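Morning F.,

Quick status update on the modeling queue. The single chain you submitted on Monday has been processed. Sequence for confirmation:
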Amino acid sequence: MAVQRRFWFVFGLSAEEAAGDAGPGRHRLEPSGDGIRRVRPAWSYAVLETGSGLEVLSAGRRRSLPEDCEAALPSETHAVLLRGAAVEAWPRAALLRGELRGEPAWSRALPPGSRPALPLLPDGFVAPRPPFYAALPGALRLRALALGHEHVVGLGAAGEVYGWGGGRHGQLGHGSLESEQQPRLVEALGGVPMRAVAAGGWHSACVSDGGDLYMWGWNESGQLGLPSRTVAEEQAEDEDMGAVLCTGPEDPPLPGESLGPAFISIQAFPALLDLPLEPAVAAVSCGSRHTAAVTRGGELYTWGWGKYGQLGHGDRASCDHPRRVEQLWAEGLWAQEVVCGPWNTYVCVLQQGGARGSHPPSTALQAGTKLGSCQGELSPHP
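Structure tokens below.
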């Protein structure tokens, strides 16, 4: 029987190259083995959950955190740690040194016996930037929560979706650009149970129990998978202008003739997004201005802003429609989990026997497989 190997890649601005200009290629997080279980990225570093505890990856070095640290939410100013019977916020500099001495910047005791799944707490949630804690209404029961740059998306116990916080880019999904101080039900998704939510810089996403993908919010870089004026202009600049010089200027459009696609800057209601080859989505993650999704067949699709190669297509081009990462597929690497950082994309892949271009077994990704979703932790840089 073929041996399966599991490992992580990063596309885009890696923690090793945060101080410089990253190339469009991929980087493997570890030379061998499959010790990394989960990745929590910030802008210039990442926290790795391994079989032996938490580690901080920064500037090409990995430092272990104290043994009592169980989970982390990182940002460019602080990191919130689940540590024993409390949650604590520590400055970024202390985390990068791996030395948590003195008093934390903030702490909150947990009820006895509780083991929350950050950012959720028994009575609220935490964020890795001040203010670190926010209470939730007592009657609200959430099973997952994703943090954007200015907003929050919650997944209710029955699969309902809530959005609150800043709403100036339509990222709350309520059909307006207004902010909401308290969790508000996304009514447009009513009656469609969801299994996962994600929040990026100023956009949001969710996946239904049936594998449908819904997106809303800001589409400036095509991160919703909808026609973007910015992306169209970038593509036009890259075209060979010699062809224009040879053929002469284009004739003006005739009356009633379409001027091109209907560009969408803001999508304030959830929009159903179909992937081109396999529509069933298992997991979705949102970066600052890009999005990545894993299908139930183990394919990775990415779209949105691509300046740092974070889309994994071997270039720095942005894209306003879902595009499969062909390099992984051609090498027989089956995506299992994806986590978007602000300017990068971390993907966990499964390799079986070194087969190239073969389709993963039907059991590789099932509808009920528990996959991670991005927590949307962003740097101050958009």
